[in-house]
């Protein structure tokens, strides 16, 4: 299967690793700075790989079976729409788009043209996360009361100034849309995904070099009655943790580590023989992106071959940006935001924050 990568920045190594481990034929890399593509070629000892600076030209000349979109966040929708219009299967990094309107347009064209597409919320494949979701599916918790996600990381000014798109409303957003979106997705997935109401507050305490927030907190009420809290920040002096906790009438689980990759607490009223093994799960990874890209690619390749919906479809990507945009809207108005979000479906983050 012929594969091409669009965007050779910070997360690109995980995509190339996943492509290699899935035995894809890597035919092209695209970046507006060709030296970034060459660096990947050298680091992974790739051969017979073409370098492009124009993704449209790359797609036209190479005709890949699928591409991965790992560019600046603000370009995700444009490139995804082009791929869908040209019937190119694709994986798009998070966030799927910067507005609900663009997310809807991507989904509409993908479905019209029978394109296979998914969003890279790879942490759904974490071993610890899979154990937790299985426990929910098999009703080990009973009725779920509430949950929480805490993303407590570090990003210095040098991280933001290294790329001029980071931290801007039009191209990135703040820490909730960038660093915390994976954790918010996991929380939503565990607690039922259908949101009823969101109330949020954000602030920029330390990072005056960006437009977005460096700390955000929120309360989410789901349609099934469960409530949840979100705390996301890059204000820790070093990367600290990402913890996901779920509380039910018959069980309590807390996942920890840097990206919800470790089982810290696993307690249920119906103790099972395999619980001790689950409690020992601690999936190591070399960076905060984890190991999930490889499994995401494996599933996506199978989805292409069998013409089925991927495990992490585009609706996943839409739902999580709805939550983040609702937090931003609540911050601006000082009021809870009720779902569905019809009143600002076409508004992007810049529009939300315009005075």
Description:
By secondary structure, this protein is α/β, with parallel strands linked by helices. The chain has two domains: 2-123 and 292-311, NAD(P)-binding Rossmann-like Domain (Rossmann fold, 3-Layer(aba) Sandwich); 124-287 and 320-338, 2-Layer Sandwich (Dihydrodipicolinate Reductase, domain 2). The protein is 35% helix and 23% strand. The chain has twelve helices and 14 strands. It has helices at residues 12-21, 34-43, 55-62, 76-85, 100-112, 127-137, 157-161, 181-191, 275-279, 292-306, 314-333, 349-353; strands at 2-6, 25-30, 50-52, 66-69, 89-93, 117-120, 144-152, 195-203, 215-222, 227-233, 241-248, 251-256, 262-268, 337-338. The protein has an eight-stranded mixed sheet with strand order 13-12-11-7-10-9-8-14. Helix 2 links the parallel strand 2 (25-30) and strand 3 (50-52). The protein starts with a strand and ends with a helix.
CATH superfamily of the largest domain: Dihydrodipicolinate Reductase, domain 2
How much helicity do the residues have? 25-40%
Termini Cα gap: 49 Å
Q: What's the total number of strands?
A: 14
CATH fold-level name of the largest domain: Dihydrodipicolinate Reductase, domain 2
Structural class: alpha/beta
What's the tally of helices? 12
The fraction of residues assigned to DSSP E strands is 15-25%
SSE order in H/E notation?
EHEHEHEHEHEHEHHEEEEEEHHHEH
CATH architecture name of the largest domain: 2-Layer Sandwich
Supply the CATH class of the largest domain: Alpha Beta
**Strand order of the main beta sheet, please?**
13-12-11-7-10-9-8-14
């Amino acid at each position: 299967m012929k594969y091409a990568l669009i965007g050779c920045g910070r997360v690109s190594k995980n995509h190339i690793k996943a492509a290699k481990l899935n035995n894809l034929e890597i035919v092209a890399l695209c970046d507006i700075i060709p030296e970034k593509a060459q660096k990947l070629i050298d680091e992974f000892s790739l051969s017979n790989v073409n370098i492009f600076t124009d993704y449209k030209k790359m797609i036209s000349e190479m005709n890949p079976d699928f591409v991965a979109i790992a560019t600046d966040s603000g370009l995700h929708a444009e490139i995804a729409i082009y791929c869908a219009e040209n019937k190119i299967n694709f994986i798009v990094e998070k966030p799927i788009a910067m507005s609900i309107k663009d997310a809807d347009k991507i989904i509409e064209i993908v479905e019209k043209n029978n394109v296979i597409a998914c969003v890279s919320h790879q942490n759904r494949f974490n071993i610890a996360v899979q154990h937790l979701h299985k426990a929910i599916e098999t009703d080990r918790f009973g009725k779920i009361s509430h949950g929480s996600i805490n993303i407590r990381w570090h990003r210095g000014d040098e991280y933001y100034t290294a790329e001029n798109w980071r931290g801007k409303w039009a191209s990135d957003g703040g820490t909730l849309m960038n660093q915390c979106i994976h954790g918010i997705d996991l929380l939503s997935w565990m607690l039922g995904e259908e949101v009823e109401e969101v109330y949020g507050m954000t602030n920029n305490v330390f990072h005056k070099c960006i437009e977005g927030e460096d700390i955000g907190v929120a309360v989410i009420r789901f349609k099934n009655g469960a409530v949840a809290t979100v705390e996301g920040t890059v204000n820790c002096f070093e990367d600290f943790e990402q913890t996901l906790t779920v509380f039910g009438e018959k069980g309590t689980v807390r996942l920890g580590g840097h990206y919800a990759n470790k089982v810290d607490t696993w307690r249920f009223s119906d103790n099972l023989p395999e619980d001790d093994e689950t409690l020992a799960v601690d999936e190591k990874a070399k960076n905060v992106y984890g190991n999930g890209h490889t499994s995401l690619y494996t599933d996506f390749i199978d989805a292409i071959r069998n013409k089925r919906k991927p495990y992490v479809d585009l609706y996943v990507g839409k739902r999580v940006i709805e939550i983040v945009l609702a937090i931003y809207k609540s911050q601006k108005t000082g009021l809870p935001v009720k779902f569905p979000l019809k009143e600002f479906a076409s508004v992007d983050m810049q529009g939300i924050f315009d005075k």
